[in-house]
Design goal:
alpha/beta, Nucleotidyltransferase, domain 5
């Protein structure tokens, strides 16, 4: 805090910048010391990524929707499907290139065990992208 020795008797309106300069010099010295330590000691030539241009020409594949109702009825893209046709549809879909995503939809009251069976079946048939569809909370 700066005090005036003049006749006015009040404090000076000037800011003492000496502590600020001291802190800045200490920070400068710390950064000068630590910056060389942050460099990597072992030089490695990293590989360059080459993007596959052939894959970008294909249009995106629409997802497959697997709907499961509370009573156990199952729909494949909004069409009813039998138990024997489910496995064959999933295995045929798993062989497609690029492989579409399987979106599993279920009623609020559908048991999770039933949903889990179909997710496991899809993964067992070779589907890599299986997800759940839900609505946002209001």
């Amino acid at each position: 805090m700066a005090f005036s020795t003049g006749n006015s008797g009040g404090p000076m309106a000037e800011i003492n910048v000496t502590p600020l300069v001291d802190v800045m010099l200490v920070l400068l010295i710390i950064f000068m010391i630590t910056t060389p330590l942050m460099q990597h000691k072992i030089a490695v030539e990293l590989p360059e990524a080459k993007l596959d241009k052939a894959g970008t020409d294909m249009p995106p594949v629409p997802p497959v929707t697997l709907t499961i109702k509370e009573d156990g009825s199952v729909f494949w893209n909004d069409e009813p499907i039998t138990k024997s046709a489910r496995e064959s549809e999933l295995s045929v879909t798993a062989q497609r290139v690029p492989q579409p995503q399987v979106n599993v939809r279920g009623d609020k009251t559908t048991k999770y065990q039933l949903l889990k069976e179909y997710v496991d079946l899809a993964q067992h048939q070779g589907m890599r992208k299986v997800g759940f569809v839900a609505t946002k909370e209001h």
